TrEMBL record:
Sorted UniProt keywords: ATP-binding, Membrane, Nucleotide-binding, Transmembrane, Transmembrane helix
Organism the protein comes from: Friedmanniella luteola
This protein's record includes keyword Metal-binding: no
Sequence ranges assigned to domain ABC transporter in this UniProt record: 348-582
Protein's name in the database: ATP-binding cassette, subfamily B
Annotated transmembrane regions: 61-85, 139-164, 170-187
Lineage of the species this protein comes from: Bacteria, Bacillati, Actinomycetota, Actinomycetes, Propionibacteriales
Pfam families found in the cross-reference section: ABC_membrane (PF00664), ABC_tran (PF00005)
One cellular component (GO) term of this entry: plasma membrane
Length: 595
């Protein structure tokens, strides 16, 4: 899974940056080439300017002092150009990696937004945040390290080997006896680093989840004075991460002295064997110095490759976590041949529906419900019986386990998901508000809503009663989750959102909860207005709201999940909607569910 998930995750976004990444690689190879030339000025100076050996044919006759100056200048020039190449290649790779990171975050985020609520309830939100931010960050570190390190370091190692074997084959071979041992040990090291990183990443994700949860519930922590519990929860995760981090660092750094000692053994062997050869007149001092310099020159790329291997091991642990999100197909499936939804108010039906969030824990069993076009139905029942669940099945936030939910007489699984959602305005029990302005939150209810429509919806849902007192009025920022508003104000914003939606099916979950009697009456009036041309299902415990409905349907708990039991026609407050089919009221009186 390791390298394959790295490839799986990075291949597509990195392809767009392949030119920039290749350019960085080429600049790095040039830098390595220059660095390979670094020992030569030293050899020239020692052998020809100091030891008086004859210069190579092309340089014959150059005075020794000039050779010394030229060697000094060449040393500076090589370092300056190598430094510039280093900067240019690293900058190019890091910029490209930032763009790859932005694209990858975009992909993971977009994919996760389409995954089913079952998936989201399993993977905690902090975990997802940690994968989109810090795991992607680690992948970018690996991308930069590979672009500027992998090829150049390999080129450097091969280059040093070739030069060594050409300059002094016997002496070079002595210095290289340690290389196979290094290779075997570094493969083992990579495995150790990877497994310690897999654990550290999992523990880090768990800490992020706990912190996200505690911060979101800071009001509860303070209200109950349970800082002790919050600190203990945090501390358990924090200590686990500390331990995992320390272990990962130990595993990673433990390698350095071993590789350094092995390389030093190579240098030591060359010094002893080469020194004996110089004493015997079989080798020049300059050549010995060059061979020693090249063996030492191996340190850097070998260390670089080891570090790269650790970075790749870390990144592959992160790539597994990112790939797990991208590879998840747990989304609401689209039909092969979608059926179009009509533009007029539609019907809603549940036919023998059974459903449970978790296997073996049914919530609804054999539920039947018919809502005619333009009708308003109130869904009543004890807490936890499954009323909100019915609304979520109509929205297709979840798919039924058995039976079918139909809109306009067509199974919701045969509608395009987006068409279905566009056809429904939903006010959930806990209004989902975003950290934007009041107007932005209301406009969320419609793709094409104008400012005038937003203001009208705010008037209809009595948002204006408090909007004018907010700093900035309709453009006031509501805070995370709308936390600068009261519960009742949040609910009115959610209602305004539904009021401005052009959808022809309206699903309201406890729309008057946390409103005082006066505000509830106002909202009820607004709902009557918006519900006139829509098919509406209202979940409520509020008798005033129940009076709005054409019918009330009771959901009662049974031994194997809830089922609809009785249905009542409203005679007092209910209206006869024009959209009701002829004879519908008689149908409304009959029991909908057959036990
Ligand atoms: N996301 C979920 N995962 C697992 N179980 C859930 C989930 N949401 C709801 N449930 C369970 O499903 C059952 C029905 O919940 P639902 O919210 O539909 O009830 P309700 O009738 O709307 O209750 P209330 O009147 O209190 O809002 C409950 O037992 C609840 O514990």
């Amino acid at each position: 899974m390791s390298t394959s998930s790295l490839r799986r995750v990075l291949a597509a976004p990195a392809r767009a940056e392949s030119a920039a990444l290749t350019a960085s690689g080429v600049l790095s190879v040039l830098r390595v080439g220059l660095e390979l030339a670094r020992p030569w000025p030293l050899a020239l100076a020692v052998d020809h300017a100091l030891d008086g050996r004859p210069l190579p044919a092309g340089l014959a006759g150059v005075p020794p002092v000039d050779v010394l100056f030229a060697a000094g200048l060449a040393t500076v020039a090589v370092s300056a150009v190598a430094g510039w190449l280093d900067m240019a290649s690293t900058r190019g790779a890091e910029r490209a990696a930032e763009r790859v990171g932005a694209q990858l975050r975009r992909e993971v985020f977009a994919h996760s937004m389409g995954l089913s609520l079952r998936w989201h309830s399993r993977v905690r939100s902090g975990e997802l945040v940690s994968r989109i931010t810090s795991d992607v960050g680690r992948l970018l570190d690996a991308l930069v390290a590979a672009a500027v390190g992998l090829v150049p370091d390999l080129v450097a190692v091969v280059g040093v080997l070739v030069v060594l074997l050409q300059v002094a084959p016997g002496l070079g071979a002595v210095g290289l006896v340690v290389v196979p041992v290094l290779a075997v040990l570094s493969v083992r090291q990579r495995r150790l680093v990877r497994s310690s990183q897999v654990h550290a990443r999992a523990v880090s994700g768990a800490l992020t989840s706990t912190v996200t949860d505690l911060v979101r519930n800071v009001a509860a922590v303070q209200a109950f004075g349970r800082h002790d519990l919050a600190r203990a929860d945090f501390e358990t995760r924090n200590r686990a991460l500390e331990a995992a981090g320390v272990r990962a660092v130990d595993v990673e750094t433990g390698w350095t002295p071993r590789s350094d000692v092995l390389l030093a053994v190579g240098s030591g062997l060359v010094l002893v064997v080469g020194g004996l050869q110089v004493r015997a007149g079989l080798q020049s001092t300059g050549t010995l110095l060059v061979v020693l310099a090249y063996v030492r020159e191996l340190y850097r790329p070998v260390r670089g490759l080891t570090r790269l291997s650790a970075v790749l091991a870390k990144a592959s642990a992160s790539a597994d976590r990112v790939a797990e999100v991208l590879d998840s197909e747990e989304r609401v499936p689209e039909p092969a041949v979608p059926t179009s939804l009509r533009a007029a108010p539609g019907t809603i039906s549940l036919r023998d529906v059974s459903f449970g969030y978790d296997p073996g824990r049914p919530v609804l069993a054999h539920v039947d419900l018919e809502v005619a076009a333009g009708e308003t139905v109130c869904l009543l029942g004890p807490s936890g019986v499954g009323k909100s669940t019915v609304l979520q099945l109509v929205l297709r936030l979840y798919d039924v386990d058995a039976g079918a939910v139909l809109v306009d007489g067509v199974d919701v699984r045969d509608h395009r998901v987006q068409d279905l959602r566009d056809a429904i305005a939903y006010v959930p029990q806990d209004p989902w508000l975003l950290d934007g302005t009041l107007a932005q939150n209301v406009a969320f209810g419609s793709r094409r809503g104008t400012r005038a429509e937003v203001l009208q919806a705010c008037r209809d849902a009595l948002v204006d009663e408090f909007a004018h007192q907010l700093p900035g009025g309709h453009d006031a920022v509501l805070g995370e989750g709308g936390n600068r508003l009261s519960g009742g104000q949040r609910r009115r914003v959610a209602l305004a959102r539904a009021a401005m939606s052009p959808a022809r099916l309206l699903l309201l979950d406890e729309p008057t909860a946390s409103l005082d009697a006066r505000a509830a009456a106002g909202v009820v009036a607004a709902i009557r207005a918006t519900a006139r041309h829509r098919t509406t299902v209202i979940v409520t415990h509020d008798p005033v709201l129940a009076d709005l409905a054409d019918r009330t349907v009771h959901l009662v708990a049974g031994p194997h999940g809830a089922r609809t039991a009785t249905t009542h026609l409203r005679t007092g407050g209910g209206e006869h909607h024009e959209g009701l089919p002829p004879g519908h009221q008689g149908a409304a009186e009959q029991a909908l569910a057959q036990p």
